[in-house]
Amino acid sequence: MYNKLQYISQGETIDEQLRNIHQALDAGCKWVQMRFKNQTIKDTYTLAEAVKLLCEEYLANFIVNDDLHLAEKIAADGVHLGLTDTKIDEARALLGSTKIIGGTANTFEDIQNHVKNGCDYIGLGPFRFTATKEKLSPILGLSGYFDILQKMKKNKIEVPVYAIGGITLRDVNPLIETGIYGIAVSGIITESLEKKLLIEQLNEKLYAKVIV
Ligand SMILES: Cc1ncc(COP(=O)(O)OP(=O)(O)O)c(N)n1
Ligand SMILES: Cc1nc(C(=O)O)sc1CCOP(=O)(O)O
Ligand SMILES: [Mg+2]
Predict the structure, then answer these.
(1) What is the pTM of this model?
(2) d(CA 212, CA 64)
(3) Does the N terminus or the C terminus of the chain have fewer Cβ atoms within 10 A?
(4) Does residue 211 have a pLDDT over 80?
């Protein structure tokens, strides 16, 4: 069972990224997606090497954003691919069946396509406006999630769906009610001055209905 809380890293420099990721791991995060946009290949690789070691130390999943070949080269746990990134089936052909491949979706059709191509989880968003990502797809809101998750249920499509985009603690319960599996967040964890308490609160809501 995948962890229901994904932290998507932030930071303009290697040091800032590592600080944010280390703090999130230390606070209890068990899934890190390294998202280091518009950087040199060298700096991205340097950061990835360090993040991999950190995630191994904290027994956390390490997913690389966008860069399939970096994910393979660094032997990350997987990759997250957007609608304009490498295709899911191409990534699966390169990484094989043991690696985690996530895909971004904004519509039910996006999800159908990703599942057909062998995606392991879906990042469905944006929930609301967020400045963390520059080119947002149309905002979904709660009704958007409800409609899409209903279509998935009707069509018996079962793949973990993570909500993403401007999510705060108070959004978790209403989002869970739509049928999503988990959430992917960036800003609220990066900016929090009480990361451990926040992650505990997020996980309490995310796992409230999980029967052990
Ligand atoms: C879990 C998750 N969902 C969606 C995204 C967005 O990915 P993408 O559309 O490729 O946009 P960028 O993150 O590359 O700006 C994600 N990264 N993770
Ligand atoms: C990386 C990303 N992708 C999105 C999408 O809608 O595909 S929204 C987003 C930003 C998530 O960060 P925050 O929790 O700070 O809003
Ligand atoms: Mg991308």
Answers:
(1) 0.98
(2) 30
(3) C
(4) no
* Domains with residue ranges and CATH for the chain: 5-207 (3.20.20.70)
- Ligand 1 mean position to 91 CA, how many Å? 15
Q: Is pLDDT above 90 for 210?
A: no
Q: Are 51 and 15 within 8 A, CB to CB?
A: no
Nearest ligand to the CA of 83 is: 1
Nearest-angstrom CA–CA distance, 149 and 18: 35
User: Within a 13 Å sphere around the CA of 60, how many CA atoms are in the beta-carbon half?
Assistant: 29
Q: Which residue's structure tokens are 């520059």?
A: 134
Measured distance CA(126)–CA(167) in Å, rounded: 9
CB distance 163 to ligand 2 below 6 Å: no
pLDDT of 209 reads: 85
CB 180 within 8 A of CB 204: no
Q: Is 140 in contact with 129 (CB distance < 8 Å)? A: no
Do the Cβ atoms of 8 and 65 come closer than 8 Å? yes
Ligand 1 nearest-atom number relative to CA 162: 1
Instruction: Please choose from 85, 119, 133, 175 the residue to mutate so as to test ligand 1's pocket, defined by most ligand atoms within 8 A of CB.
Output: 133
Quote the CA–CA distance of 26 and 79 in Å, as a whole number. 22
| Mean pLDDT for the stretch of residues 169-178 | 98
